[in-house]
Every structure is written in structure tokens, then in C-alpha cells.
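Hi everyone,

Forwarding the result from last night's run.
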Amino acid sequence: MKKAVVTGLLLFIALTVMANGLVFAKTLDGPSQKLERGAKNLVWGWTELPKSIVNTTKETNILKGILFGTLKGVANAFGRTTSGLVDTVTFPAGTYDQPAIDPTIIQD
């Protein structure tokens, strides 16, 4: 009985320590986060185009939204995709203080 209680207590402590590490793992800023951010921006950078068209249309009118939103979207998509490519290629070099673009991923 005593052996089962000690084993259960040790298992509980081990799981608590591991869970604590998992909770704080997302707040770390290192090469793995840089790779994740770069891959997301590389894959989803093109979505800046429709996003910019919709946002510009809401701010102005449909004609300006289509014309200027497309131009703005192409520029934003190029910037985000390029930033993603650079982050993905240079992730082993570590991290940097400020992300190249804001928000860091398109879903923000």
C-alpha cells in the first residue's frame, strides 16, 4: 500500500512538472517560434490580398476597395510572404527583438 501511494505521488509530481513546462512553452521566443511564424507567413501570406480588398471596401466604397485594396493587398502579400521566407530560412540563427511585420501572423 505504501509503495502504491509513493508511486502515485511521484507520478503526480512528474505530470505536474511536465504540464507546467507545456503551459510556459508557448511564451518562449526562440528559433522554433521563428520557424513557426515564418512558415505560417510563407503559407498564408497570399491571404493579405482578399483581406486588404475587404478592409478597403469597408472603409471607402466598392470601386476604391477593388482598385486600391488590390494594390495594397499585393504589396502586403509580397511583404508578408517575403518576411515568412526570410524567417523560415534564417530560423537557426535565433530570434530577434521585433518581428518584421505586424501582426506577426495573418490570423491576428
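The chain has a mean pLDDT of 82.

Cheers,
N.
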